[in-house]
Amino acid sequence: MKLDQKSKGNGWAFLPLLVFVFSYLIVGIVLESQGVDQAFYQFPTPVAAMLGIIVAFFLFKGSVSEKVDTFVKGCGDDNIIIMCLIYLLAGAFSTVAKAMGGVDATVNLGLSVLPPSVITAGLFVIAAFLGTSTGSAMGTVGALAPVAVGFADKAGIPLPLMLAAVVGGGMFGDNLSIVSDTTIAATRTQGVEMKDKFRLNLLIALPPAVITVILLLFFGSSSDAVALEGLTFNVVKVIPYLLVLVLALVGVNVLVVLTSGIVVAGIIGIVYGDLTPLSFSQNIFEGFGGMLEIFLLSMFIGGLTKMVSKAGGMDFLLRIFRKFVRGPKSAQLSIGALTLATDAATANNTVAILIDGPIAKQISQEYKLDPRKTASILDIFSCVMQGLIPYGAQILLAGSLSEGAVSPFSIVPFMWYPMLLLGFTVLSIFVPYADRILCKRPWNWEKGKAE
């Protein structure tokens, strides 16, 4: 879309998106005040988006047919459809790989080679690999938090620190993984390839991860013996995760990567008796179903954003941005700040990216930001805030799995990785040390792709 530099836009046109965000936020706050578990995750996001869509239909000018046409065009945008297909395949891969024992094999393999004296740092590393492999920080926390709880007393290490190591590692993986919904949303909203975003993101995320490991080695080491008994695993069951990672890094189309991962995981599961051909197909469909919410939300946000943009809402927001943005660096910081605020309001990093993605894309076009860097900024800042809010799903789950031993608020001060990640990301904006990897394939704005 070509931006109109003189257009003031229409401030009221942005109201439907605000209705979506604040309805979700208000319901979460009310439920939290009533003591409801996982309060910010009780109100289905597609329903909250529908409230914004209804407001848009009443607020915007034009016939109902014209508005429906605009909405459907937004839902059917090429990037939205591809994003939804990737979601489905990612869900199927994660479900099949878990069903054939991939998660248990990965966890037990990591624990079996882990020196007991460095259990806390080791849990961070295992969580980082598991999160990158599965694309799910929640799944990572669910698998490893009970391990952290079991080891905490035996090792004499504060439980909040151990749980923070697990959550931090999971957030590292969620931020980088090609099967993560945040990565899918960030890359598709900016129209960039996952391998480019992964490589750039890794250069930004690796230094804070290394520093976190060093801190955990120093503050989370134990002189007490920790029993690691009964750990059984089959290294073959880790192969699907490694296959997906390698194929993605060498640049194979992500749809092919995920399909290959599903097939290989299914074959391994059938050979070792964990799956039958029928249960394999059922797990694929179960994986599809697990992505229904984010699938619907992506389409609804795509349609709503198209309506808001046509009515002048994006032009209005850009006019506001121009008052504070003075160049590429401040533009990147503005995108980051907007993402932090949106994630704080919604407590959902994928939702934050879906809302801010179209806005970030227009800012990138106007200030000639490399969209691969923009995709990384969206994903990183959303994951940073998600790892620091005590009402975020990952920290809430870690707290609940401690069986009341710790509160989510006691975990946050030990979330060193998100804090360091924020610092290094800001540094990478002012001192673009990671951007050198993008220089090998400069972005061509006329063609809309890397050379």
TrEMBL record:
- Does Transmembrane helix appear among the keywords? yes
The UniProt entry, under InterPro entries, shows: Na/H_Antiport_NhaC-like_C (IPR018461), NhaC_Na-H+_Antiporter (IPR052180)
Q: Which UniProt keywords apply?
A: Antiport, Cell membrane, Membrane, Transmembrane, Transmembrane helix, Transport
Which cell locations does it reside in? Cell membrane
| GO cellular component term of the entry, any | plasma membrane
The UniProt transmembrane annotation reads 12-31, 43-60, 80-97, 109-130, 198-219, 239-272, 284-304, 414-434
Please verify whether the record's keywords include Transmembrane.
yes
MF terms (GO), sorted A to Z:
antiporter activity
Q: Which residues form the Na+/H+ antiporter NhaC-like C-terminal domain?
A: 24-220, 224-426
Report which superkingdom the organism of origin falls in: Bacteria
**Membrane topology classification:** Multi-pass membrane protein
Belongs to which family?
Belongs to the NhaC Na(+)/H(+) (TC 2.A.35) antiporter family.
Among PANTHER family, the record links this protein to: MALATE-2H(+)/NA(+)-LACTATE ANTIPORTER (PTHR33451), NA+_H+ ANTIPORTER (PTHR33451:SF4)
Q: What name has this protein been given in UniProt?
A: Sodium:proton antiporter
